[in-house]
Amino acid sequence: MSNVENKLYPEVSAGGYCRCDHRMEYIVRVNALLNAEMTMLEYGAGHGKWQNDHVILRRNLGNFVGRCAKVVACDVDPAVGRNPQADMRHLLGPSGRLPVADASFDIISAFSVFEHVEDPESVAAELNRVLKPGGWICAWTPNKWGYVGIGARLVPKRLRKVVLSWVEPHREEEDSFSPVYRMNTRSKLRELFPETHFRHYSYTYDGQPFYHADSLLLARLWQFVFWATPPPLKAFYMVFLQKNA
């Protein structure tokens, strides 16, 4: 965290994370759903997001190996082949189909994936296919109508690196794929995962301000914006869907 965020959230010194950390909010709830008998799919796992996290607790909570029966990582990025936080790894081909049987997984986790999905109907159908009855789809993704989603769509792709390096100078990673926001609204999620087949427990969330350019004034402005923003327009979706048994 930057010095600005430490000033906003002094509790960072007691464990490394703030009271409204969106990553911790997501990963703790996934852990709350997990048990030792479950099989887990990390969808869009890449090289293993949590392995180098500077917050020890988040790093530990993000590694599910040994805490459930099996963890399978998949991605269209060849980096998934060196993901250490999985028992098995699959590189997805153009079809996006997983080489596993129907109803293979009890829980699917997709952190910062849905915003990059080009064909949401196909992805939703595949996730539904491999999920067991009673199983969970868990995802963290920017809300299309939140400030992150709107900002990403307004900034031209050619300028994105420059803008991000200014507003978020301590950024720890960079997405390999451009966001398209085709799977990031409440209505779209209910269309893709209809309530006749899924129970919806999703909610929106803001988290701490990141895009403050190391300015305390700008960070406090973001805090005010978060406070004033109605729930449908909050920055992130915490997606938790349970397939009917």
Derived structural class: alpha/beta
Counting H and I runs of at least 4 residues, what is the number of helices?
8
State which percent range the strand residues make up.
15-25%
- Runs with pLDDT <50, length 5+? none
Q: Average pLDDT across residues?
A: 90
Structure report:
With 245 residues, the chain is an alpha/beta fold. It contains 8 helices and 8 strands; from the N terminus they run ααβαβββαβαααββαβ. Strands 1, 2, 3, 4, 5, 6, 7 and 8 form an 8-stranded mixed sheet that branches. β1 (39-43), α3 and β2 (70-75) form a beta-alpha-beta unit. The longest helix is centred in the last third of the chain and has 13 residues, at 216-228. The protein is globular, with a radius of gyration of 18 Å. The N and C termini lie far apart (42 Å). 33% of the residues are buried.
Summary keywords:
8 helices; 245 residues; alpha/beta
In short:
With 245 residues, this protein is of the alpha/beta class. It has helices at residues 3-8, 22-33, 56-61, 120-130, 147-154, 160-167, 186-192, 216-228; strands spanning 39-43, 70-75, 88-91, 105-111, 131-142, 198-200, 203-205, 236-243.
Give the arrangement of secondary structure elements.
Blueprint: H1 3-8, H2 22-33, E1 39-43, H3 56-61, E2 70-75, E3 88-91, E4 105-111, H4 120-130, E5 131-142, H5 147-154, H6 160-167, H7 186-192, E6 198-200, E7 203-205, H8 216-228, E8 236-243
Parallel strand pairs: 1-2, 1-4, 2-3, 4-5
Antiparallel strand pairs: 5-8, 6-8, 7-8
